[in-house]
Amino acid sequence: MLGAIIGDVVGSVYEFNIIKTKDFPLFRDDCFFTDDTVMTCAVAEAIMKGGKPDDFIDEMKRLGRLYPDAGYGGRFGAWVFSDDRAPYNSYGNGSAMRVSPCGWMNEGGYEAAKLSAAVTHDHPEGIKGALATFEAISLARAGFRDDPAACKKTIRKQIEEKYGYDLSKTLDEIRPTYEFNETCQDTVPQALIAFLESTDFEDAIRNAISLGGDSDTLAAITGSVAEAAYGIPDPIANAALSYLDERLYDVVKRWYAYRAKWEHDHEFGVLIERTLRRDENRTETE
User: Which end of the chain has fewer surrounding CB within 10 Å, N or C?
Assistant: First the structure.
């Protein structure tokens, strides 16, 4: 989840000021969270509530209305602020950028990922984008630490065969002609390639943003997979958490505590300790 938020925050300043290089400051004073972070938090909240269709709808509308200027796409924004609860056949990349919490569920993750997309993005391409991202996260969690090269090979093969995405191009081949695109079919493959060519978490984020295009969403998708593969360095995690307001920070903190209930992993403890340290630092400076 935090990997997606980091990608969103880092990419926020390049969405409409695209760059085609990996040489840029990772965090700038004018970085900010966008709808990608808000909706990722909404998916986490929905899962913690029980993960039923109404939970996803309720949390997307609730959090979405609390952040009316987060940068929603036109149709999604209209849905958030309306009384309509029906999906609208979208194949936008919003379904993929918000799915990452589902990838950390030990049971029912596939169904949750599909639901998290289908409540709005019920077009086959919208659902496919979310499921491909979910599967990449799940595969990275399962095999990356044991054999990174083999795991990346498995991810590439499985995503191509199961979802029909072409992951054969390199970033250098994609970058010169790639333009802003908000569809799953022209965002998810590029984001996954950015991960597949990466050497660590930060490199994955830089890869995604260097493509140009819908930078915050590209990097959110890439970051969600990179977190599962590499983990997140403390300085990067701390920097990203500082951009969140108290409400969204609380969602992140509760989500990682929720995950810790069913998994005993050093990373969960580290992140919880990190967020608690942030609380202590805030108390000392208030």
Answer: C
Number of other residues whose CB lies within 10 A of the CB of residue 123: 20
Q: What does the block give as tokens for 225?
A: 């997979």
Residues of the domain holding 90 = 2-244
**pLDDT tens column, 231-283:** 999 999 999 999 999 999 999 999 998 987 766 554 555 555 555 555 554 43
**Count of structural domains, the chain:** 1
Q: Please state whether the predicted TM-score (pTM) of the whole model is above 0.70.
A: yes
Tens-place pLDDT, residues 99-113: 999 999 988 999 999
Residue 228 domain-assigned (yes or no): yes
Return the CATH number at 202: 1.10.4080.10
Give the angle subtended at the CA of 27 by the CAs of 247 and 175, to the nearest 5°: 115
Spatial separation of the C-alpha atoms in residues 258 and 210, rounded to whole Å: 34
